[in-house]
Write a structure and sequence with these properties.
The complex is a heterodimer. Chain A is mainly alpha-helical. Chain A is built from 8 helices and no strands. Helices cover 45% and strands 27% of the residues of chain B. The longest helix of chain B is centred in the middle third of the chain and has 69 residues. The chains are: A mainly alpha, B alpha+beta.
Amino acid sequence: MARDEQALVELIEQASPWLLGLTTSMLTDQDEAEEVVLEVFATAWDRVGALGDEHDALLPWLLRIARNRAIDRLRRRRRWRLKLARAEAYGELPPDRVRATEVDEAAQPGWHVHQSVHGALERLPVEQREVVQLAYFQGLTHSEIARRLGIPMGTVKTRLRLALDKLRVSLAGIKDWIG
Amino acid sequence: MNPHDWYVENRAGFVARSLEPREERTFRDHLVRCDECSREVARLERDLGWLPMGVLPVAPAPGFSRRAAAHLLDRTRRWRRAVPLAAAAVLALAAGGLALAEHRQGRDLLAVLEQQETRLDALEDTLSVLRQANTVLQTQISMNGHSQGGMLIFQDASSHRWVVIVHGLPPAPAGSKYQFWFITETGMVRSVEVDATMKRPAFMTLPMPGVPAPVTGAALTMEPAVSRSDEPKGPMLAHVVF
């Protein structure tokens, strides 16, 4: 990645909606989500040399940093406890598809990847998809998911493992489109 | 279940970050020492790299991209100015490091304690399969026409796992190994190698194989030690069919 300001702005413009989508969904707070995305870019900027491996695509790398940061925040601030309590009070967890600000979907770069991933998630059996949503997109641990769904922890682990095995097959072949 | 099985079983949980924080630390420590797990985790992370895009995009606030770019470029400029100060800070940290060394022993003990707690968790997990088993199957093992120990299978349908116990079996002859197989409607599926010793039973916790065909039974065979075949080549020592 050239350290050129215009290239940087273009990269941020393409990646931000997806990073914000993920962090907003996980943190349910757009200000905090923006903070995390700024941290992600700062971390990536500092570590850009580590992205020499041809197998590492840029956006998945940024998304992984974002998700880890979001989970760290959820756990560090114990907000997830509040979130669980709130979810239980309303009988539902927050929706996994938060729409904070409308985007023009058809014009959104990367929309085809979203459709592929969304399709792969939809093809999972409901009970496996539910565990993936709670673990991967809500940052809950095995024991929290087991409590939430009223199933044994071993079942949570098995469903998650089976789901991720299927997803890794479904997502194979998606190419990096950013940069 | 040997200690490494726990790590194999929890690779997906580690990548999803759904392990408990204590387990996550233990797993992370393990990755430093285990090339196999480190490689598999990296592969899984790469294969699932696009998964976060399953969430809908959110439009950034106006000016966010410019603001973010300015923030990064400003950090770079500040970093360049800070290099001499950083060098001094490194020297100060090195001095402080000597004092910290004394605390390391206590930290090592904590790490051992955490590993033991994780092992206990793994054992409790195995025990849960035994307690929740819907079906328990027992069969004798036969070698050279003589009965030689037995095989017990605890099947937990809710977690789709088995605990398999093989007992009374002597160590495999030189150049051979004991191989456990799942029998499915479409054929045999290779599972784990059974490390037999007369002194104690071999104890294994196994997830169901990742094949679409239902599992209808299990078998134990003796195979050449180097065999990686997907079909049994050696003699059948035991088998059960539901």
